[in-house]
# Entry
Amino acid sequence: MFTINLSRDDEYSRQTGNKLIPLEACNVTCGIMWLRDGKISFWCPKSMKPEDYLTAILLGDDAWKLFIEMEREKYNAGLLPQNTSMMLTWGINRLVGRPVDWFIQNGSLRQMIWFLYKGSPLIMSGSFTSAGHFVCVVGFTSLQHEGDWHSEKDINLDLIETVWVDDPYGNYHTDYKDRNGNNVSFNLADFDKLTNIPNGQKWMHVNREKIK
# Structure
């Protein structure tokens, strides 16, 4: 049995503490936790929370121009640039100054576990709320012997006991009455259902530097 947990507990961040659009800031808040958990450095003005600075980047002129060009359908539907995963990747990479965020649209559960094992936290979307919600996936516990893991195909998903999540809005299991979302645990089957995109695929933001 072994556990991987990449969460930096003392830097867990609640989206409700943001000044800019806090109720729609789950993705940018996850983005900052993802950077911290992945030990990726970035610059931010001292006068702003990093989460608000990332939001400001995603609401800037360059972001709007790219959003209209690349995702006009979502723009026409009234979404903001910060509302989409593609733009979140652009914003994170712009904040860091290099392409660290790789957005995968056809990921699998086994891939998710392997990426965590390789040291990459993940930003993932799912049906945690009726409107959809982003969480930062930070680890797992496996009953399998770690020495058996040489590649992704060696993972026995039946022996994954727990998935660990940092949720910027709180604890899903309390219907978000508990606003502490640090290290919330899920069993694998429940997490799989919550994060299933049509066709069984998963959307995930991966640290490309950790999975080379």
Remarks:
- The mean pLDDT is 95.
